[in-house]
Amino acid sequence: SKAAPFDNDADGTGLGEGVLSFVLMPLRKAEKGNYHIHGVIEGSCINSDGKTNGITSPNANAQKNLILESCSNAGIDISDVSYIETHGTATKLGDPIEFQGIKEAFENEQKEYECYLGAIKGNLGHLDAAAGLAGIMKVLLSIKNKKITPIAHLNVVNELLERSETSLIFPKKSIEWAPKSGRRIAGISSFGLSGTNAHVILSEYKEENKSETEENENDKLFVFSAANISSLFDLLAEFRKRLQLRDYNLDTLLFNLKYYRDHHKKRIAIISKNKEELLESLEKLIDNKGLLEKRINKVIIISGRIVNIDDEILYNNNTVSEALDYVANKSDYTDFKKRERKVIESLPTYRFNRINLWARSNTVMESVDNEYNEEKLFNDKIIETYDRLFNLQSNVFKVIDPSYPDDFNNDLNHYCCKIIKRTFNEVGIFSRENEYYSKEELFIKSNFIEKYRKMYNFMIDTLDEFGYLIRKNDRFSKSPKI
Fold first, then answer.
1. Which one of 112, 126, 143, 296 has the fewest CB atoms closer than 10 angstroms to its CB?
2. CA quadruple 201, 206, 208, 213: dihedral positive or negative?
3. What is the mean pLDDT of residues 336-353?
4. What is the pTM of this model?
5. What pLDDT shows up at residue 367?
6. Is 69 helix (H, G, I), strand (E, B) or coil?
């Protein structure tokens, strides 16, 4: 069932599953280490309901005191709290009691206030022991995006809520979150089944007296890498999107890309003087993906211009030399300790390929690392191998003397078949008896892209022709050869 916190038809919380983790450290330590700070825990409190009507019956007075003591521990006025992520149990009994506790807490100070209410359980259900962390995650994302979102499945507000003369608001649509007293402050509630209550005051982090070095118009080197070409271009697209949404200090950005990222075999180096040139370079790379896929590690981009490393570069300097060393896999920026530590920026993370990993029959698949995937699955190296096989199959006999023995043709085809069927086996295709697939199902299951459909058709036709597949009503199963 779905959870509908504070809705008039709410009939209980549906269960959900989730795993969340946060890195906590003292604020001064985080600032000294130049870490990216998502939010600040200002204060917290726990208490118990005490005697109530039953194990599932909460205590509004205890919840009121919980919020007020949390604000006191945080050293803030409750009227500065402009958003509360509620426990939102989504029950007829619990929702009105929680609402009443929040209302009494704000009215206790007898000051004007305006506070929006939210509940993540409408989206995720009840995550049990992780429910409170889910609320913290939502608040951090709301701070990051400066928006407050409506409660999912809240259509008609519970008629038992005493909403008269209150400034507690259920937003009907996503709204801009305006700061109070210069920053955004929220409270997060999480209640246990037996009457244990917890509340945390979380605030937006405001940097003080921290300024980056003024940027200049010198050449700046931005490096990107991935284990395969598909992930690399996905990463470039994500960076383009992020740069369009927010401003970065470019010196800090390039430092993060060099020293706070792993460096993989497929590499792109971009030399730009400013954000506009960097965006132009990313656009050009993404727009020319098809042409560049086989030239990765053989080009660098200078001020939006794609330059082949084998060509004579019009001007050469230390930045260009550094770029050439990087794409040639001669530099991994391992001298981190020699560099002055800069701010750790929040950047797009690695873009993994979406690949199905099927356990082989009668075996338990152990952990598969990236290098295994790189060598064994349908990555660019395998694609290049198939491409060569296809070209060999299509073109080699054009130059062979017609009198050449037919055995050569058969040997070559069987060699191709063995490579193809081995790779099929690696991704779990035809790993069990009596498996039948249509040609299209095999195409999808093999994770091929449309660009290689001609090559794929050649592979299936070759396997069929030389007895590696059994055809039955346009569906294929494996033969004893596989």
1. 112
2. positive
3. 80
4. 0.67
5. 44
6. helix
